[in-house]
User: What shape does this take?
Amino acid sequence: MASSGPDFTMTDFLAGLTHTVRPGDQRPLVVQDDELSTIPAGSVPNPTTLRIAGKLPTATFELFRQTIPAGESSDMQRHYHETVHYVIAGDGHSEIEVDGGTETVGWSTGSFVYTPPWAWHRHYNDSPELPVEFLTIENSRLLGLFGLARRESAGLATFAEARARFDHQEET
Assistant: This one.
């Protein structure tokens, strides 16, 4: 199978991925919620709770269950991959960089929230009492296969602080 050039076909490429990770005892077809692996606090800069469905035999996308505590937010971040958050429970809003500006979008249980590639963004839980629960789906594994995985976190910074910190780093 050609990985690039005139003999490359997406069909062959995708067919090759199915053999990368096969379902079995270590990689089952079904994973229960209580089997998700919690990413240890402090190992990623996101202050929310992230639990990954890492045992599933997915080769091109990643699945997380994300919890944002009452009145809190995720970190300000950007990444090369696309992300969709399905709101399992809760109400809130997201600030997302779009075309050089910032767009604020509200969401509630049942909403799908899209984050474009390489856009600064942050998700907020608007409830002072109840957590927000997301099912987070991202195509980070696919980009990783191409060596294109990149993620930056500015912590609990503002858009201006994140841009100043990271855009300056890219220029040097």
